[in-house]
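Problem: given the chain below (523 residues), write out its structure.
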Amino acid sequence: MTAPAYIPLQPLQGSARLWGTIALSAATFMNVLDSSIANVSLPAIAGDLGVSPNQGTWVITSFGVANAIALPLTGWLSQRFGQVRLFTTSVLLFVLTSWMCGLAPNMESLIAMRALQGFVAGPMMPLAQALLLSSYPPALAGMAMALWAMTTLVAPVMGPLLGGWITDHTHWGWIFYINIPVGFLAAFITWTIFKKRETPTRQLPIDTVGLALLVVWVGALQIMLDKGKELDWFHSNEVIALGVVALVGFLFFIAWELTDEHPVVDLKLLKIRNFWTGTVSMAVAYSLFMGNLVLLPLWLQQFMGYTSTQAGMLMAPVGLFAILLSPVVGKNIQRFDPRGLTTFAFVVFAAVLFMRSHFNTQADFDTVMFPTIVQGIAVAFFFIPLSVITLGGIAPEKIPSASGLSSFARIVGGSFGTSIAITLWQDRAAVHHAQLAEMVNLGSSAATNAIAGFNASGMSTEQALSQINRMVDQQAYMLAANDIFYGSALVFLLLIPFVWLSRPIRAGKAGGAPSADAAAGAH
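Solution.
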């Protein structure tokens, strides 16, 4: 069936544009907030529901994986039902599933509700981006991107602060209930302003085989990453089976999507050089960002004695520079090569992680906070230039599909990055624990002096050894965190040459990204 001719909408004016921007940003903020708000609440949620904090990470990854699986459907759904109708429905369903998450009586039902919440939230971010870009004239597209990016960057940082305060002062369920008033208000304002700007719709067959293969390979890979440590990785037949299913499913998915007439994921977009370089860079960088965003508060709470609120306070300052600098970056993006700005962001990320890799168990509040403040500079220069690179040369009607695919890669990267960071942290801690424990023996004067000191304070030898073991645990997990921080810094530096594989482009033209006439040079 021939698609209706795409007629670009006229930009919104005055208060309509202001309120439309606020509503779309609030919905995006709420969505991204839910990907991180549970980070510092994991120990409390896990304790309340009777599982370990490491098992509690499923609360984060189940949301991310389901969200990522739904994202590629955005292009098909928006053509079938219209962007405005789909966005509003997605927000309202998100409100409903948030309420159900807060009521969950056990970990199994919470994980199921989080997965459902992530799935219905899938279309929200790419459609918020598309609707926002249609509200602004091309000359202000960079500013529109900055406003959108601010919500996606500040929310992961505000999440731990808000989640920590809620967890320490009331029931953890309120980290989900707070979505209800925000979501209702965002849906009402969006529908009121944008309902007369609905996009053309057409009947399209859905790629059920492609969707099923997507669910199979992404789900199998995520479960393998989450359960690998618990099942001793490839010594377990279950892990091997999951790995085989993920690999075979992925290969069949690629083959099917490249030959199907109406693919659920438009992989042909990957022929555009700027799109695939930007998407891969974003996915890898975001996986590092999210992995460390989850690791730091877990370490602070489990081994440094921080409360949820204190851990959240240490994570929040990254939003300071993000808020201050994002509008400046967006307003001036057309004056600079986005590859250079992205390089600057990656260098700052690497510097921050190098600083963290030198933490020790004596690190005070200010020492831990300083790199977090500096990280805000990297955050401000991260999303906007990479979004400009990624969407360069994409026709306006393809923006939802392109944004959905790049967001899919980013969110899958974030979920995988979280699982990999926690697994590597535990593995490195076991190695360091074994090395440190070898030094606790009768031939070690430090060990015998420590035991004598504990004995003098009234402890038995068994109690003294138990106390020393706790100290060794603390040191082992600190050294393991240092390893993850150091390794992540190196990967950020290795990403820099990859960014420069993209072609130079001009921001601020049609499509809210670089101009469509750059498409020929983007291949």
